[in-house]
Automatic annotation (TrEMBL):
EC number: 2.7.1.6
Annotated binding of Mg(2+), by residue: S135, E168
Keyword DNA damage: no
Family: Belongs to the GHMP kinase family. GalK subfamily.
Keyword vocabulary terms for this entry: ATP-binding, Carbohydrate metabolism, Cytoplasm, Galactose metabolism, Kinase, Magnesium, Metal-binding, Nucleotide-binding, Transferase
Protein name (database record): Galactokinase
Taxonomic classification: Bacteria, Bacillati, Bacillota, Clostridia, Lachnospirales
Keyword ATP-binding: yes
Residues the record marks as site: Transition state stabilizer: R32
A molecular function (GO) term: galactokinase activity
Segments forming domain Galactokinase N-terminal: 13-61
Catalytic activity: alpha-D-galactose + ATP = alpha-D-galactose 1-phosphate + ADP + H(+)
Length: 394
């Protein structure tokens, strides 16, 4: 369905639920996939994500009172969920609404006044729990809507990315880095973002895949970030950093080169924390090398670094699991696959592969078949394009 048709359909549904009166507006925030640079963003390293053309649509209208009414086309069985803009404490029964509510709460924590409530309809065509940042997409579409509705023109897209991260950290209890929100806010069609997460310096890099495409494989193993070992990995890296700081003046693991790490790694007394830190340092260097390879039009070198990234995430960071390993190892055996790795936090979610166009059908058939045979349920595949960042739909 084309975007205009989808928007008209969602607006019609909004009017059925909430009535046709008033100014009804539409917003969109993409999902994202990280091509390389995993678990480096909270370690002060580089990442290389891109926004996708799939994402979250929001239809919204200001109310004259303090009530917020939420409805999601993805969770129809939950019906309309109500809240009060003045009382945005997190409640477990709030479910998916904790993400938009978190952004509203975060904005007010920063001193902005939200004196009126909303009627909100959401629809996402990102697989839930897939690792393509459906939660960050909801946060950013909410932030864009709030700025538009209340005229907060002084807030930049970088500000909104930081706001989304603040909401995720402080309201929803997930100690995520900045990558997801930044990529969704700042996305640019046909470009990935080479982002230094320590400084937020970034550059857009054209993604020229010639006769290849990006293929996402969703494992359909759901995982909740706040309940996963994501926060545990972060703490392990923090412990490693603290020990390194006794012998070297650094603020983050991302400041170290591979050679520097090799020389001082023995100061990390826990071998598990040492492996976690090794991944953070070497993955950062792989990301820098991968971007250089893409700029040099060497897609084969880029793919090789993707493969190495997955091995490090499997062996040193231990965030892949049987499902993601099965998808990646099956992909590596397919002709026409330039590179394949897990993407996102891990523990389920998705893989990202670069596959030659004439091999995509065979890749999906063989990889999907292997996955069904070994795991017992199906994986879903998406051939995706790189899209623009969050904004108002005109």
């Amino acid at each position: 369905m084309e975007e205009k048709q989808l928007r008209e359909k969602l607006t019609s549904r909004f009017q059925q639920l909430f009535g046709p009166e008033g100014e009804i507006k539409a917003y969109f925030a993409p999902g994202r996939v990280n091509l390389i640079g995993e678990h480096t963003d909270y370690n002060g390293g580089h990442v290389f994500p891109c926004a996708l053309t799939i994402g979250t649509y929001m239809i919204a209208r200001l109310r004259t009172d303090h009530k917020i009414r939420f409805y999601s086309e993805n969770f129809k069985e939950q019906g309309v969920i109500e809240a009060d803009i003045r009382k945005l404490e997190k409640k477990e029964e709030g479910c998916w609404t904790n993400y938009p509510k978190g952004v509203m709460w975060a904005l007010m924590q920063k001193g902005y006044v939200l004196e009126r409530g909303f009627d909100i309809l959401l629809y996402g065509n990102i697989p839930n729990g897939s690792g393509l940042s459906s939660s960050a997409s909801v946060e950013l579409v909410t932030a864009v809507m709030l700025c538009d509705m209340f005229g907060f023109a002084q807030l930049t897209m970088t500000d909104l990315a930081l706001l989304g991260q603040f909401a995720e950290n402080q309201y929803n209890g997930v100690n995520c880095g900045i990558m997801d929100q930044f990529a969704i806010a700042m996305g640019k069609a046909k470009h990935a973002i080479f982002l230094d997460t320590a400084s937020l310096d970034y550059q857009y890099v054209p993604v020229k895949l010639k006769d290849a495409r990006i293929v996402i494989a969703c494992s359909n193993k759901k995982r909740g970030l706040g309940e996963s070992k994501y926060n545990e990995r972060r703490k392990e890296c923090e412990r490693a950093l603290q020990q390194i700081q006794t012998v070297q003046d650094i603020k983050s693991l991302g400041e170290l080169s591979a050679d520097e790490f090799e020389k001082i790694q023995d100061v990390i007394t826990d071998p598990v924390c040492r492996r976690r830190a090794k991944h953070a340092v070497f993955e950062n260097q792989r990301t820098i090398q991968a971007v250089d390879a893409l700029k040099a039009d060497d897609i084969e070198a880029f793919g090789k670094l993707m493969n190495e990234s997955h091995i490090s995430l499997r062996d040193d960071y231990e965030v892949t699991g049987k499902e993601l390993d099965t998808l990646v190892e099956a992909a590596w055996e397919c002709e026409g696959v330039i590179g394949s790795r897990m993407t996102g936090a891990g523990f389920g979610g998705c893989t990202v592969s670069i596959v030659k166009e004439d091999a995509i059908d065979t890749f999906i058939e063989k990889t999907g078949g292997r996955y069904l045979e070994q795991i017992g349920y199906k994986a879903d595949f998406y051939v995706v394009d790189i899209g623009a960042g969050a904004g108002v739909l005109i």
